[in-house]
Design goal:
Length: 318
């Protein structure tokens, strides 16, 4: 699932409850068209039911079956748009058993759609293994893009969006969380994490301790009536949520990249590490790859400096 499983948004676009007579009319005036055989990865709304594409509705209406995490959740979406396609459960607990069933159906000429409870499938759900095995079997695959909580939070954060990394869910325990955050310390990119509201204050404190007191945006209830994006430093927001208590709803945390002075320090660290690797007997190529992985610096930049150091020590000709 993407990260927003509660789809009963307090919006005009909310899903109707069981028995609600308000059902949206199908998109198109003709008969339902069955798509070609294949696996269709379909993004669904993360809160507001209106955030679904016309193409997604057509595919969901026309496929032979829809594989979904929870038929109750997906059923609300389908009822809203008058879609009666059969649903098949596909989740963490039955994935190993259901994967061959779904892929055999595709191999036999059926069209199968994969949806998560909310958002883009394969982001923190079992869809990855299904897609990988479909690829390995040479089956047709396509993705119908749409709502995604991580990208929505990034757009609303006001933080740099030219380079970013989605870090998923961090470990629940503080020590393990700080260890993983340390891996991102020198990465010159905005970081995006999903987090439990109950752990938010502690997680933000760990961000400040491991990454420095960076700019952070906490986005919650995205696309819903009470959507909120709170911006500040990691330590200030940690103190805020420690004082006010966990916020309601699903949470996305967006962490800004390291400051310019930190980047300068990283460049000096990169050169030191390169010299150590080259003096230790590594080839220029291996040293560059090794240091780029450690520092998060662009590979081309690290390789160019490694070439200079490898030929002249300080960049001069030998």
């Amino acid at each position: 699932m993407d990260d927003q499983p509660d789809l009963d948004a307090d919006l005009d676009g909310e899903f109707p409850e069981e028995g609600d007579d308000a059902v949206a009319q199908p998109t198109g005036s003709g008969a339902i068209r069955k798509p070609g055989a294949g696996l269709y990865i379909v993004a669904t709304p993360i809160g507001n039911a209106g955030d679904i594409t016309l193409r997604a509705l057509d595919i969901l209406r026309g496929v032979d079956a829809i594989a979904c995490e929870d038929t109750r959740v997906t059923g609300k979406l389908l009822r809203r748009y008058g879609i009666r396609t059969r649903m098949l459960p596909y989740h963490d607990h039955n994935a190993a058993k259901m994967r061959p069933v779904l892929l055999d159906r595709v191999a036999q000429g059926q069209a199968i759609a994969l949806v998560s409870d909310a958002g883009t499938p394969l982001v923190s759900d079992p869809g990855f293994k299904l897609v990988r095995e479909a690829k390995d079997r040479g089956l047709s695959l396509t993705h119908l893009p749409g709502a995604n909580a991580a990208i929505t939070a990034l757009v609303l954060s006001g933080l740099p969006s030219d380079r970013f990394l989605f870090g998923g869910f961090l470990p629940a325990k503080s020590a393990a969380r700080r260890t993983e955050l340390d891996l991102f310390r020198t990465l010159p990119a905005t970081l995006i994490f999903y987090e439990s509201a109950q752990r938010l204050a502690e997680m933000l404190g760990d961000v400040a301790a491991s990454l420095g007191n960076r700019e952070v945006a906490v986005a919650r209830e995205l696309t819903k009536l009470f959507e909120e994006v709170r911006r500040g430093t990691a330590s200030d927001l940690s103190a805020h949520y420690a004082d006010k208590g966990p916020p309601k709803g699903e949470v996305v945390v967006v962490v800004g990249p390291p400051a310019a002075d930190a980047a300068a320090t990283d460049a000096a660290d990169m050169e030191t590490l390169l010299k150590q690797a080259l003096q230790g007997g590594m080839s220029v190529r291996d040293a560059a790859a090794h240091v780029a992985t450690i520092t998060g610096q662009p590979k081309k930049q690290v390789y160019a400096r490694a070439l200079q150091l490898g030929t002249g020590g300080d960049g001069a000709d030998p």
